[in-house]
Design brief:
The chain has four helices and no strands. The chain is elongated and about 65 Å long.
């Protein structure tokens, strides 16, 4: 998220990006809370930890094939986020090592 904010070119776009980011985060948090409340209502006595709520809800509400596809969609979103974070971390480390060990600075485009 920080890399996307750093790539914004004007102040006007930063204001809109801030509103979009806060709105999206609020929507995701409301969805997570509603999922937890629905799990408490539909499956009240099956949970000892909160890590299995989503998979148990998918198995209770959908057929096994649909539950598997939805689980794969969640896994794909997680992997995409991790990939982006690893790319940002790797480019930061490479830039820091370049500045530390090399005296020649790369040309900026």
């Amino acid at each position: 998220m920080l890399a996307r904010f750093q790539a914004i070119s004007s102040k006007n776009k930063i204001i809109w990006a801030r509103y979009i980011a806060v709105s999206w985060a609020a929507l995701v948090m409301v969805g997570a809370c509603l999922t937890g409340l629905l799990a408490l209502i539909t499956l009240p006595d099956t949970f000892t930890d909160s890590d299995g709520v989503l998979t148990a809800m998918l198995n209770a509400l959908f057929s096994p094939w649909v539950a598997a596809l939805l689980s794969l969609a969640v896994l794909a979103a997680i992997m995409s986020s991790v990939d982006s974070q690893l790319m940002v971390a790797a480019s930061t480390v490479a830039e820091d090592c370049n500045a530390l060990f090399l005296t020649v600075r790369p040309k900026t485009a």
